[in-house]
Amino acid sequence: MEISTAIFYLVAAVTVGSAAMVAFSRNIIHSAFSLLGTFAGVAGIYVFLGADFVAGVQVLVYVGGILVLILFAVMLTHRITDVQITNRSAGRIPGLVVVAILFVLLVQSIGETPWAKAKEVVYKATTASIGDLFLGDYLLPFELASLVLLAALIGAVVLARQEIKE
Amino acid sequence: MAPLNYYLVLSAVIFAIGVAGVIVRRNVIVILMSVELMLNAVNLTFLAFARSFGSMDGQVIVFFVMTVAAAEAVVGLAIIIALFRHRRSLDPREMQLLKW
Description:
The structure holds 2 protein chains of 2 kinds. Chain A is extended. In chain A, helix 1 (3-24) packs antiparallel against helix 2 (28-48) and helix 2 (28-48) packs antiparallel against helix 3. Chain A is built from 6 helices and no strands. In chain A, 72% of the residues lie in helices and 0% in strands. Chain A is an all-alpha fold. Chain B has a single domain (4-95), classed as Helix Hairpins. Chain B is built from 3 helices and no strands. Chain B is mainly α. In chain B, helix 1 packs antiparallel against helix 2 and helix 2 runs antiparallel to helix 3. Chain B starts with a helix and ends in a 13-residue tail after the last helix.
């Protein structure tokens, strides 16, 4: 086995393991911190795929932004002492059956579809061509994305502010 | 480089775990985290295809997915905090004001 394949398996195992922790841990703090392993592992897989800039943004946005937000929400909504009652699960068996069916379907369709052959790709920096696409073909979606972010910002402020009653 | 199928199956595994989390868990924050897992799995698929088809469009779309994911997390968590303030609970089964 090549060393790169071994590293791929290692990163994939870390990612899947911590993803399972996120979804199935009984302690919500453990769930939140396992999310770090998943996000970082996915960033590692992005590097494998030659997407250097996306991997950097993944670390910045997900680990630096979304994860911190989620931790804030966890800390704001729980007294740390009553974690054990806050993360119950229910309806395990039917839910897991549905998920198993979904997973089998996905793997089946991945295996049966004749995907286009992977080209021999050279690793090169992707930043320049991403920038070209953003300000060229994808200019309108790019501007719309900034509008979405502005709306989310205002919405979050309006929703989460404390109302002060006179 | 590992073949395309490896990445697709890995992404399918993460996606299935995310769906399991959404279905099985009874805490809104964990459900939101599982949604983030699913979004990450989808991003992984986009990048794997972008790589194997030798096109950059997949990578650009990943940025839009990330934007929407960030917006979703921000607004979702704000709603969760507002809900918690009103009802002192994070159990989705107790949030049924619209049900009759």
